[in-house]
Amino acid sequence: MHVILLGTAAGGGFPQWNCWCPTCRAARETSELARARTQSSIAFSADGARWFLGNASPDVREQLARLPRAEVRGMRHVPVEGIVLTDAELDHTLGIALLREGRLLQVIATPSVLRTITEDSRVLPVTQAFATVQTVNAELGSVVPLEYRNGSASGLTVEMMAVRGDPPRFARHDDEGHTVATFIREMSTGKTFAFVPGCGGLGPRLLSRLNEADLLLFDGTFWTDDELIRLDISGRPALAMGHVPITGREGSLTILSQLACRQKVYTHINNTNPMLIESSDERALVEAAGILVGMDGMRFEL
Fold first, then answer.
1. With a threshold of 0.85, does the pTM exceed it?
2. 95 neighbors 56 (Cβ within 8 angstroms)
3. Domains plus CATH for the chain?
4. What is the model's pLDDT at position 240?
5. How far is the C-alpha of 227 from the C-alpha of 230, rounded, in Å?
6. What average pLDDT does range 196-212 have in this prediction?
7. DSSP assigned state of 291
8. What is the pLDDT of residues 222-258, one digit of tens each?
């Protein structure tokens, strides 16, 4: 199974267009010190040729260029077989509308997420004005086979597990399953990776599942709970925004470092997070714990 990190920044990308915090300033002034990142998304494939997306960011057009170049016959080629959503946030769903030229799209998500992108953000009906969009209800705890656009089996399955977090600000409902951890499994090998770009807490049940993954891609949004407060950007702490911070009493760094996963990677990293600076003490601390700081274009093979 092949996994590519298409984008590793939180909403707004890095550097964020209107932000001059210390990390964004460093990225603008010395790109080698803090490399730019697009908004969080992944691609995964059983055969290295046909790809599913984990979320569809507003940067999807640029990100698809990271996929291996396939031999193309005819005038059009769609390398995306389906889109698996972890939530209904705009930075994870606007790319669906930008893929409307694909003519046939497949969206796999929980009933809560499908309801939000249909009734609230209306990303789904907007896209359906241009393309046929097939939706797959992925009920929490159910193992759902992933199929290619032609209906054939991919050999991959997805299972979704609700995690702590807030629904999108524009969502009118707070249904269970608005934010999930996704577990992608290759049936022939049993290899599994977990994609959890948004998570507000690490309970024992979730940790037990994460411990079984061969690869873990986890929420690295904020370094501290009061990160945005200290920078006078927002009055809300990280946990109130549905993101467990990396450090602190409930931080993820110490907990994740103890998991048995062969590879652990932070992704969905906010532009204010100091570990984005490659020579920083924060980066060194993460790497010493055996965790990678995700970078656009990173590739993994399970």
1. yes
2. yes
3. 2-13+22-69+77-301 (3.60.15.10)
4. 94
5. 5
6. 97
7. -
8. 999 999 999 999 999 999 999 999 999 889 999 999 9
Quote the CA–CA distance of 128 and 238 in Å, as a whole number.
Answer: 35
DSSP string, 121-165: S-HHHHHHTTSEEEEEE--TT-EEEEE-TTS-EEEEEEEEEE-S-
On whether the CB atoms of residues 272 and 23 are closer than 8 A, the answer is: yes
Q: Which amino acid is at 11?
A: G
Q: Are 293 and 242 in contact (CB under 8 A)?
A: no
At 77, the pLDDT band (50, 70, 90 cuts) reads: confident
Residue at 199: amino acid letter: C
Q: What is the mean pLDDT of the chain?
A: 96
DSSP string, 247-265: SSTT-HHHHHHTS--SEEE
**Helix-, strand-, coil-residue percentages of the chain, each rounded to 5:** 25, 25, 50
